[in-house]
Amino acid sequence: MLPIKVPPLGESIVEATVSKWHKKEGDAVTAGDTIVELDTDKITVEVPAQKAGVLAKRSKNEGDVVKVDEVLGELDEAAVREAESGKRATGQREGGGERREAVATAPAAPRAEAAAPAASQSESVKSSPAARRIADERGIDIAAVTGTGRGGVVSKPDVLAAGTSGPKAPSAPSVPRPSAPISPPRGNGAAPGERETREKMTTRRKRIAENLLQSQQSTAHLTTFNEVDMSAVTSLREKFKEKVEKEHGVKLTFMPFFVRAAVMALKQFPSVNAMIDGDSIVYRHYVNMGIAVASDAGLVVPNVKDADRKGMIEVSREISEVAKRARDGKLTMDDLTGGTFTITNGGVFGSLVSTPILNYPQVGILGLHKIQDRPVAINGQVVIRPMMYIALSYDHRLVEGAHAVQFLVRVKELIEDPAAMLIE
Predict the structure, then answer these.
(1) pLDDT tens track for 134-148
(2) Total-model pTM
(3) In whole angstroms, what separates CA 54 from the centre of its chain?
(4) Catalytic residue among 34, 342, 344, 369
(5) Catalytic residue among 90, 197, 248, 396
(6) Is 403 assigned a catalytic role?
(7) CB count in 10 Å sphere of residue 372
(8) How far from 188 is each of 31, 137, 181, 191, CA to CA, in Å?
(9) What is the set of domains in the chain, with CATH numbers?
(10) How large is the angle between the packed helices 78-93 and 95-104, nearest 10 degrees?
(11) Active site residue 396
């Protein structure tokens, strides 16, 4: 029996929740197959089979909390060898009958032989069940997909990425499916007449709750607001977005403009990019910009490293990449650690105004909101402009109120006059 153990989960992560078993007891498993998925407070970890065998025992149930190196189940490697030995013995006993059967079915043999190499090639590829299902649905040759998982295992995101550019096997056109940024809460699926449902919190949800509570209890949390006229940056974006997408393959959104504006404001007000460590203040002379992303598994904040040293196109590309990894469950620990400041955009969900919670131990977070046409007074005239409320939540222990207000005013000035962001 080969024990199936919880693998190392990453720096400072010691436990996870068994989220989904892909195999039942008695199921045959090939090397590389995903046996079980584990949810940590930051990422989802697939546990693949190291060798072929039969899943003899599942020691943990879905929802159980497990620790690193704890046994999840047992794989019976001998069962595969016994099955193969039985097949060989049967073939030897019925050798004559097999020859007579071959003569009777000779016309169909070439077709079977032609199909065999392709089938065996696909079956030999180490891949997860989800990856094989998606490959079948979309007609993708999984043998041609490069696996990025542990041990070269082909995962679902690998297949999805290959679907846009990789080789495909002939298949009927698939029916397009509507996409949604995030699934509704599972608690909505109550049976008719059922007044309450109960489910166990995942490790990730518990840790998110703990971190938010720690942020509220450990900081002098305060929020200041302002509003931004988005006319200039909207016009600039409309002018260049098609060219940028054509030449660089990147969709130009509003987020890179706010990242650039925040980086410039942080240089002017370094306390907003600092942190408190005991009785010391740590000033960071770099900006790892966290971008809050909503996914099916919960809120995550991957960060763009050294955003202060990168141009707007490069920042835009990295934001797109980390957001995709977040939605596909492919974030690494490096993506989620080291952030110095965070931007969250509730406007994509229709939020008009909010007070974002600090991403502790950071001392500042910028909240963006919905762009809405509103009447405003410009030079004594009432005009309609696309306006956005912006909010800065900050830790008043370190950031003075005047500096917080001035920081937000600086972001407003840069967004309303984006040409100023090109001066440096």
Answers:
(1) 777 677 877 878 776
(2) 0.67
(3) 31
(4) 344
(5) 396
(6) no
(7) 14
(8) 38, 28, 17, 9
(9) 2-78 (2.40.50.100), 125-170 (4.10.320.10), 204-422 (3.30.559.10)
(10) 70
(11) yes
